Please model this.
Amino acid sequence: MVFKHLRPIALAAYALSAINYVAAQTSAVPPPVAGAPAAEVRSLNDWLMRMNQAASNRSYVGTFVVSAGGNMSSAKIWHVCEGNQQVERVETLTGAPRSVFRHNDEVLTFMPDHKLARSEKRESLGLFPELFQSADSRIGDFYHFRQEGAGRVAGVDADIVVLAPKDNLRFGYRVWTERGNGLVVKLQTLDAQGKVVEQAAFSELELDAPVKMEKLIQMMGKVQGYRLEKPLLLKTMASAEGWALKAPVAGFNPMSCYRRLAPASVGTGPAEMAEGPLQWIFSDGLASVSIFIEPYDRQRHIREASLAMGATHTLTRQLDAYWVTLVGEVPTATLQLFAHGLERKK
Amino acid sequence: MKSSVIPRELLSGLADGQLSDEELAVALGACADDASSLDCWNTYHLIGEVLRAPALSAVSVAAGADLAFVGRLSARLAQEAPAATPLVANASAPASALRPAQVVHHRGPASNDGNFRWKLAAGVASLAAVSAIAWNASGLLTTVPAPQLAQVAAPQIVVTSAQGPVVRDARLEELLAAHRQFGAASALQESSGFLRNATFEMPQDVQAAGGR
Amino acid sequence: MSTEPPPTPADSDALLVERTLKGDQRAFELLVIKYQRRIQRLIGRMVRDVDLVEDIAQETFIRAYRALAQFRGEAQFYTWLYRIAINTAKKALMDLKRNPTVSENAYKSDDDDETSRVENELTSSETPEAVLASKEIAQIINAAMQELPEELREAITLREIEGLSYEEISEAMNCPIGTVRSRIFRAREAISAKVKPLLENQTGKRW
Model:
């Protein structure tokens, strides 16, 4: 009895959107099993949609810093939207010089130190909206969503939410979104103890900066003196390639499967490319895992290892005549589950 | 040849933690120049140990062998990278099935051209437990100029660097880039996507792998 | 605790660690000399084979050297070093157990109790000659102490046995700090002179 009275008071202490709180107040304590209460799911979906749309309706310039452990790296970012076109430019401030340009799905990476430019397609759109249209949001099954308050990042006001994993197979996240439009301005990836394994945030941010789209597109065209490279992906199906996962890893759905072909200079047809590894991609909506499968080669595949870089973990192992590399923003144990579940069908 | 008195008095002060920085430098200089300074340091500490030992016991002293011990150690230390830069803390949990590494050892500094540094935990004899350090800038940035995923990649190379042993695995860098290309398989990547993936070179520190 | 070094108020270990991290290998060697006996005794309680004890001790210091940067900020260098020694010894023992060609006698049951009684200081890994030599050395040092002028004996006693800082000693003895430093130094020198001939004869003797 007492609790019912306390809840509204406690919640009112947070200065956040009233709508979400009304919804949260009326929900029961979230059950420990998959299947989040409707209200929590709605808040989560709203938040996700807003976050997703933010980048497509605002221009900005900023400096972005990623840190894991004591290490930090940074880059400067220009982002501009005009109509349904988006252009982005990223310049590394630390480490090797890199300029990455993105025009909608087309990505061009300049490596001045190698005089190489790589052209790729960003496989993105189409995945996102589907993930959250359904009423029983998959993300809500595996993450608790809660508002945590407000904060300030790089001079802008932000709302903080936490996505806490319901099991140990995935990491948690604390996300700061700019109050005005939902742009993610800071993102922490958290381990099972709530410790930050990785943080990505703007250190400087100028919203609605006057960035000229044509100027950026022009810069993208300056491939003079660069060797151009265009890796190729062939969409396929894991089952068609003879692979299956014996037991699914909770929450992670297979998203797509590609056969990668060795990149070649522009002009080389697919027939002349050499086959690369198979890439099978899984996602739980927030984290993704790629399983790369290639034929085992004694000379190259020397060592099974478990490595980590910030939130990204990798695992390599031999599986009969194949060599498997697993990569994902998940704990190593999760990669091990995938590794053990992988089997060759034919 | 008897070492001069002044450095020995400094060693006495050093044993008690009572030296200024300049005095410390002089004391260490004396040790470098004169082996009897080490003898002296050794004896001072031995005296302290004996004095603190209860009356009826004897402190095993291994006195004569002492400087031989540090002499042998000194030769090994000279082979190590200087303890001057931060090294890796924890060895991560090794992968379940480990096979002896056949790696190519190179001496010499690891150049900074790699965005990636998959690092070995300090003191880990087997190369199986590795902690990685560097980030790849965006899913689409790799340092390898000619990725050639289908071709034979260079074997893993272990380089002894000022940061300790460092593993270069160009192939793994490639696959990580390929993984990041699909960063939008997740909502967070899609939105902050390009940004979070736009991670860049990290300097030399290492993260322990999250092996469980 | 019998052979515990007195607490060093202005931490000499910290000075040496810092110096090592600036690239001075010799500073680390001073730390090694300071702690090698203690470390070898510690390992000797777990491992019977004398050669193995020394190998493990060497390995301990190498690991400490490699990981030295992580020591910064920790409380006591020896505490940290102690843990490295224990872990190195345990690992060596496990490796031994897996290797059937190594004799059972090479290792003993685990005992990482640092506060084990003094009698255990002399382990069965010491040769009788070494035990005798140790006793002789102790005797000389104690005799030399008795022969010191009073103020020198008092100064070194307050430092080494009571663990007082120079400042505290200067208060206790009512003399300037510089005098404290000088007295401790002269006490050490006087004792060293008497014990050095004995130490020079120890070359090659183990433990």
Summary: Residues 35-52 of chain B form the longest helix (18 residues). Chain B touches chain A through 78 residues (CB under 8 Å).
